[in-house]
Every structure is written in C-alpha cells, then in structure tokens.
Task: structure prediction
Amino acid sequence: METTCVIQKTQKKQKLSEKEDIDGNIKSLGSLPEEVLRHILSFLPTEHAVRTSVLSKRWEYLWVSIPNLDFDRYTYDKRKFVERELLMNFVDRALCLRDSSSVIKRFTLCCDVLLDASRVCTWISTAVSHNVQVLNIDIRDFDVVFSLPSCLFTCKTLTSLYLNMWSYILKLPTTICFSNLKILTIKDVTFSNEYLTQQLFSGLPVLEELKLEDCSWGNLKFVTISAPKLHSLSIFKMEVLDDDIGRSGDLCLVMIVGDSLKEFYYKGLMFAEYCLYNSFRVEKAEIVTKSKYDRIPTNIARFLWNLLIGLSRVELLRLSSDMVKVLSNSPEFLPHMPMFNNLIDLIIVDNEVDIDCTVLLKILQKSPCLQTLNFSKGISLSLNWEEDDMILDPVPACFLSHLKWIKVGRYFGLEKELFAVKILLKNAVVLDKIIIAFPFSYTRNFEEHVKVLTQLLELPRRSQNCKIILE
Result:
C-alpha cells in the first residue's frame, strides 16, 4: 500500500512538473518580440497559424501579419459546397484583418472560381498591394468571364509567379512589365492574342527561369520569347487541348532568343515549331518527344531537326528513343546534321534504341569529344548483321579518342543486346568502364543468369583498361 502511494505521488509530481514546464515554455515563447513570433508562425500552414490566436490576448492577432499566406482548396473537402465557402470566407477575413503596412512574401491561392470572379481578383489585387514577392495562383471552374487584375502584370515586387488556369484562355492587359520577376511558370492556359502574348514575353527584363506546361498557342502564328537574362527554359506538352487538334498545317512558330540561355528542356508532344536563335551558351538540353500522335503533324521531323541545329553547342544532351525514331523516318535531313563539338554526355531515354539506327550513328559521328554514352533503357539491333564491322562504319572519332564511359540499362541477355554490347566494346578504344544494368523485372534461373554473365564477361574488349561492371 505504501509503495502504491509513493508511485501515485511520484506520478502526480511528474505531471505537475510537466505542466509547469509547458506553462514555462509558453511564457518563455510569449516573451519573445512579435517580429520573432511572426517569423516562427511563418513556418506553419496558414490554418495552423490562425489557431494560435486562442493561446492568449497577445497571440490573438499575431497571425494577421505573417509573411506567408497559403489558401489551398485541397485543405478542405472539395466535394462539399459548404467547405468551399469556409475557405472563401477564411480568405476574406485573413486579408480584411491584415495590417496595410505588412508585406506578403508568399501568397498561394488554389480554389474554384465559379461565380466569384470579382472576389478572386480582389484577393490577388490585395496581395499585390502588400508587395507580394512569390505568388502562386491555381484556379479553375470559371462560371463567368474571368480576367486577372491588370495590377498583377505591373507588380514591381514580384520575383516568382506560378499561374495555372486549367485550360482557360489567358486574357492579358495592354501594359505588361514584370520588372523584378525571375521565375515564371505558366500552366494549362491558352494564349489568344498574338500582340499581347508578345508583350508578355518581352516584358521580362530580369527573368531567369521560364516554364510553360501544357499551354496552347491557340490560333497564334508567331511569338518571340525574348528575355535578356533567361538561362533556363522548360516546355512540357503532355496533354492535347482542343485548340491543338487538327492544326497540323499551320502551327505557331515560337522564336526563342537565347542570348543567356544555358538550359533547354522540351518534353511531350509537339504542336508548335520552336527555333533557338543565338543559343551559343546552351550547355544542357533535353528533347523527349513521342513518335505516336493521334494526328501527327507532317512537319514534325523538321521541327525536331531545327531544334537540334539550335542545340549544336551543348555539353549534355538527353534525347528520347522515340525522337530518334521520328528523325530516322526523314532521311532527307541526315546530311544537315550539325556538329556537336562540345558534346560530352549523351543520354538516350524512354525506350531501348537500336545501335544501328542511322540517326544515332550520325549523332555519334558528329560528336568528336563525347566522353559518356548512356542507353538508359537498353540497346538492341534492328537487323540481323552478319558482320559487325559494317555497323560502325566509319567508326565515330569519339570511340577512338574520348569515349570513357558507357552504360546499358534494362539488359535482358537477348542475342541482339549481346551483339550490340559486343560492337561497343570492339570499337571503343579508350573505354574505361561499361556498366550493364539488369531490370527489376529480370527473371532467370540461376544457370541461365550465370550464362548471361559469362557471355558478357568473355566479350573481347578493344580497350585494355576497360572494366565490365554488372548491376
């Protein structure tokens, strides 16, 4: 009995001690300057920061001046109209209570517009009036005509803008100048006015990074992207919009003036012609496109060739195997393959590629300084060759002097794969390492696996220093 009493007293003292520690921590936290407390609150989700208003009288309105405001419809149950109204009212209250002198560093708005177009515009205008620096707008479901507030397009404090309008037509004002904007992402919009679209991409004097994701050029014929400090441009076209279909004969020409451009990425379908002008500084590039289109533009191969010509000075080039196949179907362009004198790393992605593909061989022959070659999804042969000496004829210069590293992914041990690896090892004179990677789905019994490994390790190597590494 005495032991039980002692334990209970000890537990009681422990609880009291814990309560005193909590109270002490709250008092210690509450004694900090308001500026420090607001900084701490800025790391919390907005709805959690608001809940701190119940802690004490001092905390009641601290949250209204926090620098980061994030209002996301996914925080609420989007299937219930009443939950949407809670979000809308919450945004109204947060902006209404905000001190007019407080700066908004980051403002994120993700919601359904429906009939509240003017309400949404007011929120964005309020963020601009509070000298917003990072603005993320993700809005959809427009039941009325919607235009972004014109003050947004002349905001002097904005450094980063993300705009997603879910296939809506982007209406632009007549005056556009983002004097401090460095990062711009535009997703899922349709450009409708050629002159104003041109104004948009010409009013970005300090822009460094531009991303265009699933955008449509609509009926536009010509656009120039000209930002003097732009160093990274990414264009993703993974979905086909209604405005893209049936326009194979008269597509938009997008001229990219790349005076400072260092990185260029294109991924997806191609429903416009992109030309790089003055792109002498591009170091990294990726062109990952698909060979299968529901209605393929007849001039798709020409578009891809023009891109390659504009990227002739890159040091790292990532190409999809589908793109290589598309170009192979247009042999008339082969004589115009540019020299890639600076190319060091070449990566083929998406699917396996045939080592005897004419376009691949031409690229290798035009890349005298190539050091690494990565077939990330494997290699094979398209034909049954009786003499492997005929495939690399002439042998690319890089195989004789610079090529040090090769990787072959998704190796299954098929005869054509083995023959392709044999060709590489036979012709790479200064090769240090070749990595053969087996896929996760690779299933062979022990004896078969040993046979595959033995075949690889016994292949003759032109380079005396070459190591075969199996993964």
About this structure: The chain has a mean pLDDT of 83. The longest strand covers residues 160-170. The chain is about 30% helix and 25% strand. Residues 32 and 38 are 10 Å apart (CA to CA).
